[in-house]
Fold this sequence. Notes:
The protein is of the alpha+beta class and about 210 residues long. It has helices at about 15-40, 40-60, 115-125, 140, 155-170, 190-209; strands spanning about 1-5, 10-15, 65, 70-75, 80-85, 85-90, 95-100, 105-110, 185.
Amino acid sequence: MNESEHANRIVFRSRFGIVLTVVVWVICAGGAISAIVSGAGILPVVLLLTLGWFVWLAFWRPCVVTDTDGVELHNLVRDVSIPYGAIENVDTRFALVVTADGRNYSAWGAPAPGGGSAMRDSMSRRRVGQTDWRDAPRSVRDAGSARAGDAVTSASGAPATVIRRELDRRDHEGIRRGVDAQVRVTLRAPLVAVSALALVASVAVMLIG
């Protein structure tokens, strides 16, 4: 999990997504340069650039951002800003899901571990005698059990832990839910436009080629 912090702002992004994006971009760049040098035409260049764009969109851009005010879920082409005062629940069954104002908001960039990872994590915790998840926030410990996605080392558990600890702190200090706390959903039109343009360009060069 890649975390960068500046003025209480923490960005959670999947290591897998970062590595995959870098590898694909290197391959796409090399392939595009090779196509240009060899005179293979514009078709492979456009297709490689389109591939690089969608890999970035799906695996690099998605992330979870927390700060002193709330949490932001950056998904493919949509961002969700959720103040702490509006959060009703945090779940990690399949991915980080924040419930606010009666709706569930999933984080594309914070999936829960797969079955294999969950089993390895469970076996590791039993070996070292950490079955009570002492590193989890109180809201998880009080439930008497925890999912693999709650582990602070997982893509979903790391941001979930930060959010839950802040909610625990607010509950302990008697900070009530804000009446004006509202969820803000923003569609990133430039990302939609670039994606549409990339698809149109790819189809066009394939038909022409």
